[in-house]
Design a protein that fits this description.
With 763 residues, the protein is mainly alpha-helical. The protein is built from 25 helices and seven strands. The N terminus is likely disordered.
Length: 763
């Protein structure tokens, strides 16, 4: 009953460990029916205990019904679980280069909530609750199993997502089987609340057993997990003694207790997006208050009032720590920091009145302000943004608070002017990888002069933000115009090269079918299939006469093939003598049409001359390889004329780093592994250009995926082929930042917080 993966893992297991890896997967599948039956029996006993402790007749009857239905369907679930688990395991594996699924059954996205009904919300919360219970039960053993399974797969370091035996895989299969059972939704929810705990107990034992098997088989971990103060894990290389410096397999991790009934839950967030809230009384505490219940006005004044002292928010400790002092030094040189802080603090308001202090009149207002506070905090912590930009977004919080009360559509409408303004600001700022980057000072000045007044304004609605947005775009227009001109010039060059490449490939295929192509030396055949096919394609693309063979370059193919066969030409040397001057002249004329470098065809002309001399003088045929039937991958790479390469900033090879060259900047959200991510136009990347890291944006992709064009903030373009793009990613000279927009990431984090509150409030 071995699992046959539909696609190989990104890294095939090393030969010595492959059998251990496959044996584990096979064994888990073989025992999966019994695992399901044991989970069902443990669930039945747990339901019985709940029934015995029931305080109301309704609860007693509910637990009784859940037990009866479970006993009736246990055998069916046992039969179906192996197939569901096999399917879940196969879904975890993707072919090399294929993008892994980005959305999980166990996550929720902000913009999905409006499309969900109440039952789907309940199902999502129950699924998340089950996952949390399960994760708590297996946390320690799972971390050690990750290190061993990754070693068995041949991975150089621990990558937990490559462990096929992750608990969510088992849970996904369990939930798939339970959803198929003919039982009420309430009964299925009653089952899952207890099944998750039972499955956790089973998996903990399973993981400990697999850890022992792998160690006995000689597998050594590639790293060990260490739990951080924030609850996250990092993996470190094993010590010489190959013992874990962190927790061991027996370590139990406790899930923090819930914090009562929080204001923001998933159901309330959905209702907020749908506009279902009437004027309900707001909760006692202000959602916008600091953790110590400090009024928002005082918090705002404390953080932004002083024109001398900067806001007391700790900058990130890693990604941009070195750029923070430089950022504010640059801004201070413009005499803008004090001005902005003075502007933000000059119209200081008293608690309870004035801009930004409109009191929440109902639950909807309170929720809206809570969402704004969380969203702003998430944006201000996004490591893709430089610290001055993070701080500027924090300064806009009062305006967004007012907007949340005045126009709740801000949350449900992705095209709302305020959301678009935030996205424009954050997306535009990602063009700069440091405060000293060209154009960053000008960008910050535009923010402070145009958008800064929003921080102390009385917000009436969306129009306030739309006006600012239009003014910002007008301010950026001059720079964008230059950038767009450079981009369009590069695109024009690349589009022409791509069209020529496609046409040349078709013409090359026609040449390959010529009956005598295999009778000429390989160098001559390569010339015809490569550069000369490009010449014919260029002539056709630029022809305006409608000729079937403009320039008569295709006609020259037959003459060249004949002249490269001494056994044929020696019988008609007179014809060869008349052909040679015209042939060589036309060949050079055609190559000049695409500005093809003479040094790359020098060997071809030299061999052709030898073939002609051999026809006149006799003697052995010049050495040469037989004509190829297929071009190599390098031969099939698109050709760009020097002018096209210059117009598009074409990179025809990786530039080797010199000793002491800059280390790659830490990518805030790097794409893990050597496989190519699904790059989309608009994605920001760090690209190594001439030994220096440059922040640039994917601004165009050829219609055939042949060329990729990147444009930086100043309009400088860099282009490359798909082959070079893959090499850059594999060698680490191109780092892709997270493709999801900053505002979307922040709002998704709000949805996750609402989910977490929903789960913990009922644990």
């Amino acid at each position: 009953m071995a699992l046959k993966h539909s696609a190989p893992p990104d890294h095939a297991p090393r030969d010595g460990n492959a059998s251990h890896y496959q044996r584990i997967v096979d064994g888990v599948l073989a025992d999966s029916r019994h695992l399901m039956e044991r989970v069902a029996e443990a669930t039945r006993m747990s339901l019985q205990l709940r029934q015995d402790q029931a305080r109301t007749p309704g609860e007693h009857q509910g637990m009784l019904e859940a037990q009866q239905q479970l006993m009736r369907l246990t055998s069916v679930m046992g039969e179906r679980y192996p197939g569901a688990l096999r399917k879940a395991l196969e879904q975890q594996t993707t072919a090399p280069g294929e993008e892994k699924p980005s959305r999980s059954l166990f996550t929720i996205h902000f913009d999905q909530l409006e499309l969900m009904d109440e039952s789907q919300i309940t199902e999502s919360v129950e699924r998340a609750r089950a996952r949390q219970v399960l994760a708590s039960a297996v946390e320690g053993p799972l971390a050690d199993l990750d290190a061993l399974v990754c070693a068995a797969q041949g991975l150089p370091r621990v990558q937990p997502e490559h462990n096929p035996l992750r608990p969510e895989v088992f849970l996904q299969a369990l939930q798939a089987v339970v959803s198929q059972m003919q039982a009420t939704a309430q009964v299925r929810n009653d089952w899952m609340a207890h099944m998750a705990k039972a499955l956790g107990t089973e998996l903990k034992g399973l993981y400990l057993a697999q850890i022992d098997l792998l160690k006995q088989g000689g597998v050594r971990p590639v790293g060990y997990a260490m739990r951080q103060a924030d609850g996250e894990y990092v993996y470190v290389a094993p010590s010489n003694g190959e013992t874990s410096p962190g927790f061991g397999a027996e370590t139990d991790m406790l899930v923090p207790a819930g914090s009562g009934d929080p204001l923001l839950t998933l159901d309330r967030l959905r209702r907020l997006l749908l506009g279902e809230f009437s004027e309900q009384p707001a909760p006692q505490q202000s959602p916008a208050a600091a953790p110590d219940n400090e009024p928002f006005a005082e918090r705002f004044a404390r953080e932004f009032d002083s024109p001398v002292q900067l806001p007391q928010i700790d900058p990130p400790a890693t990604d941009f720590a070195m750029t923070v002092p430089a950022a504010f030094e640059a801004l201070q040189e413009m005499n803008q920091v004090g001005q902005m802080m003075e502007r933000l603090g000059s119209q200081r308001v008293q608690p309870g009145d004035g801009p930004g202090q409109r009191r929440a009149a109902g639950l909807g207002d309170a929720l809206g302000m809570e969402v704004v506070a969380l969203m702003v905090d998430n944006i201000a912590r996004d490591s893709r943004l430089l610290w001055p930009v993070q701080q500027f977004v924090r300064a806009l919080e009062p305006a967004l608070m007012q907007l949340a009360v005045a126009d709740p559509r801000f949350f449900s409408n992705k095209e709302h002017p305020a959301r678009r303004l935030l996205q424009d600001i954050t997306d535009h700022s990602m063009a700069f990888n440091g405060a000293e980057a060209p154009g960053f000072k000008r960008f910050m000045r535009s923010l402070m002069d145009i958008a800064g007044p929003l921080a102390s304004a009385t917000i009436e609605g969306a129009d306030d933000f739309e006006q600012v947005r239009q003014q910002l775009h007008a301010q950026w227009a001059d720079g964008e115009q230059v950038r767009e001109q450079e981009r369009l010039r590069a695109i024009e060059a690349l589009e022409h090269a791509e069209q020529r490449h496609l046409l040349a490939a078709r013409l090359s295929g026609e040449i390959r079918l010529l009956p005598q192509i295999d009778s000429i030396p390989g160098e001559i055949a390569h010339f015809l299939l490569g550069p000369w096919a490009q010449v014919m394609a260029q002539a056709r693309l630029t022809d305006r006469t409608g000729s079937a063979d403009p320039g008569r370059y295709q006609e020259l193919v037959g003459a060249l093939v004949w002249s490269a066969q001494p056994e044929l030409t020696r019988t008609n040397t007179g014809e060869l003598a008349r052909l040679i001057p015209q042939l060589l002249s036309r060949l050079r004329e055609g190559l000049a049409l695409i500005d093809y470098p003479a040094d790359r065809t020098e060997a071809v002309f030299e061999q052709l001359m030898q073939l002609h001399q051999q026809a006149f003088q006799g003697g052995p045929k010049p050495a040469g390889q037989p004509a190829p039937t297929l071009l190599t991958q390098e031969d099939e790479e698109p050709w760009l004329a020097p002018s096209e390469a210059q117009d598009s900033g074409f990179m025809d090879d990786l530039q080797p780093s010199q000793p002491g060259a800059l280390e790659p900047p830490p990518a805030p959200t790097p794409v893990d592994g050597p496989t190519r991510p699904a790059l989309a136009v608009g994605s920001w990347v760090n690209l190594l250009v001439a030994g220096q890291w440059e922040r640039t944006q994917l601004s165009w992709v050829g219609s055939q995926g042949t060329f990729f064009l990147f444009t930086n903030a100043s309009g400088r373009t860099q282009s490359m082929t798909l082959r070079l793009l893959d090499r850059c990613i594999q060698q680490g000279s191109l780092q892709v930042l997270s493709q999801q927009p900053v505002v979307d990431v922040a709002l998704d984090a709000v949805a996750q917080a609402a989910m977490r509150n929903s789960v913990e409030s009922r644990l």
